[in-house]
Design a protein that fits this description.
Elements lengths: L6 H4 L3 E3 L10 E5 L12 H10 L9 E5 L8 H11 L5 E4 L2 H15 L9 E5 L8 H11 L5 E5 L5 E5 L3
Parallel strand pairs: 1-5, 2-3, 3-4, 5-6
Antiparallel strand pairs: 6-7
């Protein structure tokens, strides 16, 4: 019987898996409605007092997505004041959804990565993941990879979609 050879394992094909950089518990969200009367009314004195008394330590070294889950109409300074209290603890504060904060996390990570291992190599930008990597992150990653890779495909080695091939 003839030996089965794994040609993918023997090739110079490299896999870039965004799931390797997923933030897990490094990105959290914070709903400001918890400090509003009935979740809707901002009473400045009460708001300030609650912020001063709040335990901010769970946000240490986290990316924090600040949002309001109710339809409360809040002045811009409300989010700014929450940020004043969060800043000594959080790595970064984003006004918006947790998904926006995850995208910001990835942008920061992708900007710091060393891509020299991918230089002049065929790369697969892994597309199947168990974690919810936002689609926008693939757009960020491809911009980094095409600067160094010989070619970039999307998906898995068995069913990759060609995205980019460097000009000779």
């Amino acid at each position: 019987m003839e030996e089965i050879v794994n040609k993918v394992a023997q090739s110079s094909l490299m896999v870039f898996d965004l799931e390797d950089y997923y933030p897990d518990d490094h990105v959290v969200d914070l709903d400001v409605s918890q400090w509003l009367a009935e979740g809707f009314i901002l009473r400045e004195t009460d708001f300030r007092t609650q912020l001063k008394e709040y335990d901010w330590s769970p946000f240490e070294d986290k990316y924090v997505a600040l949002y309001c889950s109710t339809d409360a109409i809040l002045p811009a300074w409300a989010f700014a004041l929450v940020s004043v209290h969060l800043t000594p603890f959080a790595l970064k504060i984003i006004h918006g959804t947790k998904e926006l904060a995850i995208i910001e996390w990835y942008q920061d990570i992708l900007n710091k990565l060393d891509y020299t291992d991918y230089f002049q190599n065929p790369v697969i930008l892994k597309g199947c993941s168990k974690k919810a990597v936002p689609n926008q992150v693939y757009t960020l990653a491809i911009q980094k990879l095409i600067k160094v890779a010989k070619s970039v495909m999307f998906g898995e080695a068995c069913s990759a979609v060609p995205l980019y091939k460097a000009k000779k």
